[in-house]
Structure formats: C-alpha cells, structure tokens
Design the sequence.
C-alpha cells in the first residue's frame, strides 16, 4: 500500500481549514437560500477530501469502496425518510399546548 506524503496531508489539512473559514464567512453574508446551497456544497467538498485523502478510498480495494458507497447510500435513504416524515407533518401546534403568552 502506498503511503501518503506529508505534503499531501498538510495541503489537504490546509484546504479543509480554508473551507472551514469559507463556511464561517458565509454566515456573515445574507444570501437567503444561497447560504444553504453554498454550505452544502462546501460540506460535500470536505467529505470528498476526507474520503479520498485521509480514508485512502482512492487507492483502496473495491470491497472497501463498495462498503463506503453502501454507507452513503443508506445515509441518503435515512435522509429521504426523515424529510418525507418532516414535510408531511401538520404545522399547527398540538391542541393541549397553551397559546404563547404575551410577556411584557
């Protein structure tokens, strides 16, 4: 198995820190839905860097890549089921809850 060089690991770490700074900076810029999309894109890049470099998925066997793909697939299934449940719930409060008080 080929060992990853220190320069590659440090460059990846630096890239992750840069992406972290970009994520933090995006919290101070109001883009509406663009903030969500931008941060999800940055998170996807971070995941790809970690999987490729630190987890060595690029040079791993087919079995290991298949296991990582299966885990990602089941994560998408769980997210799909969660959002399907969340989007179909009623938005009105439960009848046994007291209405919000107007505290002054």
Sequence:
């Amino acid at each position: 198995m080929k060992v990853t060089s220190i320069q590659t690991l440090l460059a990846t770490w630096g890239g992750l820190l840069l992406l972290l700074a970009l994520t933090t900076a995006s919290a101070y810029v109001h883009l509406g839905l663009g903030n969500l999309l931008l941060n999800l894109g940055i998170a996807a890049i971070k995941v790809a860097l970690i999987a490729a470099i630190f987890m060595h998925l690029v040079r791993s066997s087919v079995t290991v890549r298949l296991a990582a793909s299966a885990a990602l697939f089941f994560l998408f299934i769980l997210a799909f089921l969660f959002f399907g449940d969340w989007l179909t719930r009623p938005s009105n409060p439960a009848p046994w809850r007291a209405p919000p008080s107007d505290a002054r």
In short: Helices lie at 6-26, 33-54, 62-88.
